[in-house]
Amino acid sequence: MVWRGLIDRYGDRMDITPSAAPVTLYEGNTPLIPAPRLAAAVAPGAELFLKYEGLNPTGSFKDRGMTTAITQAVSEGAKSVICASTGNTAASAAAYAARAGLKCVVLIPEGKVALGKLAGAIAYGADVVAIKGSFDDGLTMVREIAKVYPIALVNSVNPARLEGQKTAAWEVIDQIGEPPDWLCLPVGNAGNISAYWLGFRQSSHEKMPKLLGAQAEGAAPIVFGKRVDHPETIATAIRIGNPARWQEAEAALRESSGTILAVSDEEILAAQSMIATMEGVYCEPSSAAGVAGLRKAVAAGNFATEGRKIVCVLTGHGMKDPDTTVKQFKASEPINPTIEALLKRLEAK
Fold first, then answer.
1. 100 DSSP 8-state letter
2. Does domain 6-59+161-325 have CATH number 3.40.50.1100?
3. Non-local CB neighbours of 118 within 8 Å, separated by 6+ positions
4. Alpha-carbon distance 332 to 87, whole Å?
5. CB atoms within 10 A of CB 15
6. Beta carbons of 231 and 188 less than 8 angstroms apart
7. Which helix (H) or strand (E) element contains residue 108?
8. pLDDT tens-digit profile of 118-153?
9. pLDDT at residue number 113
């Protein structure tokens, strides 16, 4: 089969304008990677898979929803688009807007966006506007401006975004033959957990997975049941204190008999390292939150894994935030350019 992008593959199951010409970068079709060594360490007895969304065109799952959001915007006559972002949405919106020939404006919290993500938005030609506030402040601003100015909003409050993102659930089903027993994923603005549940509910399977959502401890409004005015976490993609899809996420968790928990930055970084060193898959810190959540739930004794099929969603590529990885690295002293020095170093290890 020739891959032509998500709308060409699933468009008849999406609630977007049927006649709209797809704006695509051939997103989707990301691998579902078996992770047996990681499973032995964090979920004994389980068949564990990593849905590696970092292999989408701009390096994150956001491309799934952006192909539908930009396609719909073009079909409605939009000439420019806008979004607030912690980084991945900005890069994706900028890329798909460039593909469609649209102007793109992105609002980002000043000093709170990983350079790998900011570089993408700049490279694709977006008008990057830094604000002295949080992502939540930015989202409020873009929602208001879209009401009074001719510009299309492409954040996940746009229903077309979820229409694209729900396709990941269908891919998971196609790849393992049925829905998994558990699906574990990071939760920031809560669009992705809502979209996965929408996709599973719209599948032809009676079996439904339970959802395990993970928020960073410093940005866990759903876990703690209250807005976080000043969210802080090393996991920049989920540094959100007032999720736009909060109610939908709670409904998904309730309907799936799932759970949501908070994980520390240390637990997130440990999970990121385990994923990379045990399975050779490099994801950004935020992406590792789902694995950190799974590990924490199993360690607490309230998550049975024996014989279960578990999918952990890795939402973004590690090169989205290489600075965090480099900062954790403790370099040893350089050696002299001799075989003797190299042998000494190897034997010391």
1. H
2. yes
3. 87, 90, 108, 128
4. 32
5. 12
6. no
7. strand 103-109
8. 888 999 999 999 999 999 999 999 999 999 999 999
9. 81
What gap in Å lies between CA 183 and CA 32, rounded to an integer?
A: 12
What's the CA gap between 191 and 213, in Å, rounded? Answer: 12
Annotation: CATH topology of 62-159: Rossmann fold (3.40.50)
Of the candidates 311, 308, 307, the one whose C-alpha atom is nearest the C-alpha of residue 291 is 311
Per-residue model confidence (pLDDT) at position 3: 62
Closest CA to 190 of 162, 153, 226, 160: 162
Q: Which residues of the chain have pLDDT under 70?
A: 1-3
Task: For residue 179, give both structure tokens.
Answer: 């829905």
Per-residue pLDDT at 2: 60
Tokens describing residue 163: 């229409």
Angle between helices 62-75 and 191-201 (to 10 degrees): 80
Q: Which phi-psi region, left, alpha or beta, contains residue 29 (left: φ > 0; alpha: ψ -120 to 50)?
A: left
Q: How is the chain split into domains, by residue range?
A: 6-59+161-325, 62-159
